[in-house]
Specification:
The chain has 59 residues and is an alpha+beta fold. It has helices spanning 15-24, 39-46; strands spanning 30-34, 52-56. A two-stranded parallel sheet has the order 1-2. It is globular and about 30 Å long.
């Protein structure tokens, strides 16, 4: 059975936090981002680093 590793976590939205987050990304990564006021600015930062990016509205 082929299972993909799933990683969950949070990172501070600082230069150091983003650098740590970027280190976890691979070209085949799929990322789920909760829809908030700053979501689209964050999405622009990571879009080119992941295979798939999903924005979820939790309301």
């Amino acid at each position: 059975m082929n299972q993909k590793a799933k990683r969950t976590g949070t990172f501070d939205l600082t230069e150091e936090g983003l650098a740590a987050f970027y280190k976890t990304l691979t070209g085949d990564a799929c990322v789920l981002v909760e829809a908030t006021i700053s979501t689209f600015a964050f999405v622009r930062l990571i879009r080119s680093r992941v295979k798939e990016l999903v924005i979820a509205n939790t309301l």
